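Protocol step 4 of 6: record predicted structures for both targets in the notebook before any analysis. Target 1:
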Amino acid sequence: MEWVLVGIALIAAVVVGGAVAWVVARRAAAAHTQLFEHLEVVKTSLSALQGSLQENTRTMFSAFESQMRQTTEVIRATQESLTRQLKEVSETTGSTNEKIARVMELQTALKNLERTLTNQKQRGALGERSLQLVLENILPPTAFALQHTIAPGLIADAAIFVKEGVIPIDAKFSLDDFQRAMDASDEGERERALKAHYEALKQRINETAKYILPQKGTLPFAIMYIPSEAIYYDLLSGTVGAETLVSYAHNKRVIIASPTTFTAYLQTVYDGLRAWQIEKNAQEILKNVEKLQRHLKAYEVSYHKVGLTLTTAVNHYNASAKEWLKIDKDIARLNSSKEAPQLESLAIAERPLSPVAELNEQEEGAQK
């Protein structure tokens, strides 16, 4: 009985185990199927994701490539711009350096000019050099001379040679008192400096008037050249006592000139020199014409004599021809069987003219 129970229990256990196994197997198969379906879904999703990733990758790569090209172009343009700007900066720096060098040169020149203007001797040399430049720019070299001796011990800074004589020129550069007047801080100091300046100019006018020596070939006036326009225009309103400096210079027969007015005056002198040269050339031409007339008259006399001589020679020749014809006739009569040589007379024998008249007729025929 126990064995039966045991058998039944075993059978029941087997049945239960088989049922459990079957249930488990069914569940496993269902789970496997479900898992496979999930795997298919995942595979499909992965494929779609891969396609999307590839498309996104291509899009990103294309965008990246385009961005790289743009970035490269921007970098190249930036490099070119930087190169150009660096070049411009370099050129600007070079130009700036040149300008700085020029400014330094100008500063040095101004310092030299300042030293020159503060030294009276050098200032005088500067005035003479200015006078020389104006003369050289307008007049021919033969029309003027520098450091010209008017009389023993009296040497003018320059002289102009015109038809009527010599124009003496003296360069004057009075600056010290004028500069003090310009730098004066009050009116009283300025008036005192200007008064001293005008007195100095009056003395310069007297010094220039010493060169007026008509007995030595100068014209009855001289020129005082002031190389500063500022000093010249201030002088026009300057007075010494009750008399203006211009009036004082006029009474001393001194013409005061600045570079501008002196240039205009020299232009007038140049025109006069040209007219004088034309006059001299015309006189020379007249002299040559008179010589030509004398030579033509002498030639006419000689030519007339030659014509008379030729006329006489032709007449003698025609007479000889006539005598030859007579001899010819005599021979013909002596020997009528032989022909005597014939000599034709010259045509001029029929109308003996002077060679001069014949030459005139030939010229008239050639003109026709």
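Target 2:
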Amino acid sequence: MRAPGAAGAGVARWAASAPAPLTDYAGRAPPVHAYPVFPYDHQINERLAIWQGDISTLEVDAITNTTDETLMESNIVSERIMQCAGPDLKEEIITRGLECRTGEAVVTRGFALRCRHVVHTVSPKYVAKYHSAAESSLHNCYKNVLHLAREAGARSLALCVVSAPRRNFPPDVAAHVLLRTVRRYLEQHSQPQLVVVSSACGAELGPLLALAPLYFPRSPREADAARWRLRDEGGPEGEPVHPERRIRIIHNPHSHSADTGESWARTAREADAARWRLRDEGGPEGEPVHPERRIRIIHNPHSHSADTAEDDTSLCDEDAAVEAAAAFARACSPDTQLLLPPTAPAPHVARRTYDTDQ
């Protein structure tokens, strides 16, 4: 185990790399962005390095391990880290019962490695149907790794390409997420002082080297040229942003600006046209309403307006209605009879036996 410090002196910084020839887009099409989203910053470029090689050999404060939920996945990066760290790393994972969910990160000691800490993270599997969810989860991987490395006091971090080929992530999408997240983190935090993006595979570094000038321009001209090539600027922390999923919140719905007049008029026209197409408006809470099943209640049966004159002939005898309701209750359940008032006995009428009886 090495002493803490800002190592990685043998790794060339991104600021020292030669910029590629720029393409003049001015006369072809208008830029996507009115101003450079990621301006030129020499100090931030000094804190980034893109390096090809074995991550376990780097002399830094912390390195990254891409693994699965059990922290025991068998891949090129994880196997190499486990081998160089010795059995103590695996013993710590088993003893502490460490687990890691997708998009999260866990810190362990480096043991026999040349680093002090190992930050383990789990990359999501890419499915085209859930593109936005996979992007957000991959962003969380890099953000949590950077956050835990800063909490551990690491001044230098070796960051591997978390999205391994077996995760089926498109290389360009993964490169955009990595570079955008690292750029925003370095803008907002002073630690770690150095982030080394490393990979043993040249095919993984190709998209990173091609897209790095968009997020880490090495000159003002390179930052200006990125206005045509950069599509998504992301959120404040580099997270993917999907405008179609935003919820529009109006703080003062009674105030309408001039640009909303046209949409308001269009909505009013559509609402007026819906009067001919909408059949059922429902109740106060949207429940279905059946007018034929409504019970008409007359609060004052002695007051009749002009439109209820036709209903006067349909009024039934009140005494007959009460007697019919009582008979129905007795027929339905014997227990209901206890709730009804006792029926008055009918008066006895003596029947005559003969016509001559008085």
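Step 5 preliminary note on target 2. Residues 1-6, 258-265, 308-314 have pLDDT under 50 and may be disordered. The longest strand covers residues 62-67.
Proceed to step 6 after PI sign-off.
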